[in-house]
Amino acid sequence: MAHDVATMLVCDADLVQSGFYPAEQSQDGTLFRWVGPSPLATIFLPPLNMPLEIRLHVHSAFVPDVLGRVRMALDGGTWAPAVLLEQGGTTQLRACPRPGKMQHLGTLRLEIDTLRTESPRQRGQMDDRALSLALSAITLRPLA
After folding, report:
1. So what's the architecture of 7-142 in CATH?
2. Is 65 helix (H, G, I), strand (E, B) or coil?
3. Section 15-20 average pLDDT
4. Tens of pLDDT, residues 36-53
5. Which of these ranges, 31-40, 62-71, 98-107, has the smallest mean pLDDT?
6. Cα Rg of the chain (Å, integer)
Protein backbone atom coordinates (compact mmCIF):
# COMPACT_ATOMS: atom_id res chain seq x y z
CA MET A 1 0.00 0.00 0.00
CA ALA A 2 1.51 3.35 -1.03
CA HIS A 3 1.35 6.47 1.12
CA ASP A 4 1.00 10.12 0.04
CA VAL A 5 2.00 11.70 3.36
CA ALA A 6 5.43 11.96 4.95
CA THR A 7 6.71 8.87 6.74
CA MET A 8 9.38 9.09 9.43
CA LEU A 9 11.52 6.10 10.28
CA VAL A 10 13.42 6.24 13.58
CA CYS A 11 16.92 4.79 13.43
CA ASP A 12 16.32 2.35 16.27
CA ALA A 13 16.75 -1.41 16.77
CA ASP A 14 13.65 -2.10 14.61
CA LEU A 15 15.04 -0.38 11.49
CA VAL A 16 15.41 -2.97 8.69
CA GLN A 17 18.91 -2.24 7.47
CA SER A 18 22.49 -3.32 6.76
CA GLY A 19 25.70 -1.33 7.05
CA PHE A 20 24.92 0.21 10.45
CA TYR A 21 26.09 -0.50 13.97
CA PRO A 22 23.47 -1.42 16.60
CA ALA A 23 21.14 1.35 17.80
CA GLU A 24 22.35 3.64 20.58
CA GLN A 25 20.69 6.31 22.70
CA SER A 26 22.14 9.75 23.44
CA GLN A 27 21.96 11.41 26.85
CA ASP A 28 18.92 13.42 25.69
CA GLY A 29 17.10 10.19 24.74
CA THR A 30 17.58 10.41 20.95
CA LEU A 31 17.92 7.02 19.28
CA PHE A 32 20.51 6.80 16.49
CA ARG A 33 22.64 4.39 14.46
CA TRP A 34 26.18 4.91 13.13
CA VAL A 35 26.91 4.08 9.49
CA GLY A 36 29.81 1.63 9.50
CA PRO A 37 32.12 -0.17 9.29
CA SER A 38 31.74 0.44 5.53
CA PRO A 39 30.70 3.90 4.30
CA LEU A 40 27.84 2.20 2.40
CA ALA A 41 24.56 1.47 4.18
CA THR A 42 21.19 0.11 3.05
CA ILE A 43 17.73 0.67 4.51
CA PHE A 44 14.62 -1.20 3.40
CA LEU A 45 11.67 1.18 3.08
CA PRO A 46 7.91 0.59 2.86
CA PRO A 47 6.36 1.01 -0.60
CA LEU A 48 5.78 4.69 -1.34
CA ASN A 49 4.55 6.80 -4.25
CA MET A 50 7.25 8.24 -6.51
CA PRO A 51 8.96 10.61 -6.95
CA LEU A 52 10.24 10.66 -3.39
CA GLU A 53 12.13 13.19 -1.26
CA ILE A 54 14.40 11.54 1.30
CA ARG A 55 15.82 13.40 4.29
CA LEU A 56 18.44 11.85 6.53
CA HIS A 57 18.42 13.41 10.01
CA VAL A 58 22.06 13.55 11.11
CA HIS A 59 22.54 13.12 14.85
CA SER A 60 26.33 13.34 14.67
CA ALA A 61 29.09 13.36 12.06
CA PHE A 62 32.31 11.63 13.05
CA VAL A 63 33.66 12.51 9.58
CA PRO A 64 32.00 15.94 9.08
CA ASP A 65 33.75 16.71 5.78
CA VAL A 66 31.59 14.07 4.02
CA LEU A 67 28.33 15.89 4.82
CA GLY A 68 28.40 17.88 1.58
CA ARG A 69 29.22 14.80 -0.53
CA VAL A 70 26.77 12.11 0.63
CA ARG A 71 24.70 10.47 -2.08
CA MET A 72 21.65 8.20 -2.18
CA ALA A 73 20.13 5.67 -4.60
CA LEU A 74 16.80 3.79 -4.68
CA ASP A 75 16.46 0.21 -5.93
CA GLY A 76 19.71 0.28 -7.89
CA GLY A 77 18.93 3.58 -9.63
CA THR A 78 21.31 6.43 -10.37
CA TRP A 79 23.13 7.96 -7.38
CA ALA A 80 21.66 11.36 -6.41
CA PRO A 81 23.77 13.89 -4.50
CA ALA A 82 22.35 14.94 -1.14
CA VAL A 83 21.93 18.62 -0.32
CA LEU A 84 23.14 19.65 3.14
CA LEU A 85 20.47 21.54 5.12
CA GLU A 86 21.39 23.11 8.47
CA GLN A 87 18.91 25.16 10.46
CA GLY A 88 17.87 25.56 14.06
CA GLY A 89 20.67 23.34 15.30
CA THR A 90 19.64 20.39 13.10
CA THR A 91 21.45 18.85 10.16
CA GLN A 92 19.66 17.05 7.37
CA LEU A 93 20.73 15.58 4.05
CA ARG A 94 18.07 15.80 1.31
CA ALA A 95 17.94 13.94 -2.00
CA CYS A 96 15.34 12.88 -4.56
CA PRO A 97 16.83 9.76 -6.18
CA ARG A 98 15.01 8.10 -9.06
CA PRO A 99 14.32 4.42 -8.43
CA GLY A 100 15.99 1.74 -10.51
CA LYS A 101 14.44 -1.53 -11.56
CA MET A 102 15.46 -3.66 -8.57
CA GLN A 103 12.62 -4.75 -6.30
CA HIS A 104 12.79 -6.57 -3.00
CA LEU A 105 9.53 -8.25 -2.02
CA GLY A 106 7.40 -5.10 -2.06
CA THR A 107 9.97 -2.86 -0.38
CA LEU A 108 12.22 -0.08 -1.64
CA ARG A 109 15.95 -0.34 -1.07
CA LEU A 110 17.59 2.96 -0.10
CA GLU A 111 21.36 2.98 -0.45
CA ILE A 112 23.42 5.64 1.30
CA ASP A 113 27.05 6.37 0.42
CA THR A 114 28.88 8.43 3.06
CA LEU A 115 32.21 8.07 1.18
CA ARG A 116 34.47 7.13 4.09
CA THR A 117 34.72 6.13 7.72
CA GLU A 118 37.33 6.68 10.42
CA SER A 119 38.00 5.02 13.73
CA PRO A 120 37.92 7.02 16.97
CA ARG A 121 41.10 5.08 17.86
CA GLN A 122 42.89 7.12 15.16
CA ARG A 123 42.05 10.18 17.28
CA GLY A 124 43.29 8.70 20.54
CA GLN A 125 39.97 7.28 21.78
CA MET A 126 39.25 3.70 22.84
CA ASP A 127 36.55 2.93 20.23
CA ASP A 128 37.81 0.64 17.43
CA ARG A 129 34.72 0.97 15.24
CA ALA A 130 34.91 2.62 11.80
CA LEU A 131 32.30 5.42 11.93
CA SER A 132 30.92 7.95 9.47
CA LEU A 133 27.53 9.54 10.22
CA ALA A 134 25.05 8.80 13.01
CA LEU A 135 21.46 9.00 11.74
CA SER A 136 18.53 9.55 14.10
CA ALA A 137 15.67 9.40 11.58
CA ILE A 138 14.76 9.26 7.92
CA THR A 139 11.84 11.25 6.50
CA LEU A 140 10.24 10.03 3.29
CA ARG A 141 7.90 12.39 1.45
CA PRO A 142 6.23 11.57 -1.89
CA LEU A 143 6.39 14.57 -4.24
CA ALA A 144 2.99 14.31 -5.94
Report:
1. Sandwich (2.60)
2. helix
3. 95
4. 999 999 999 888 888 999
5. 98-107
6. 15
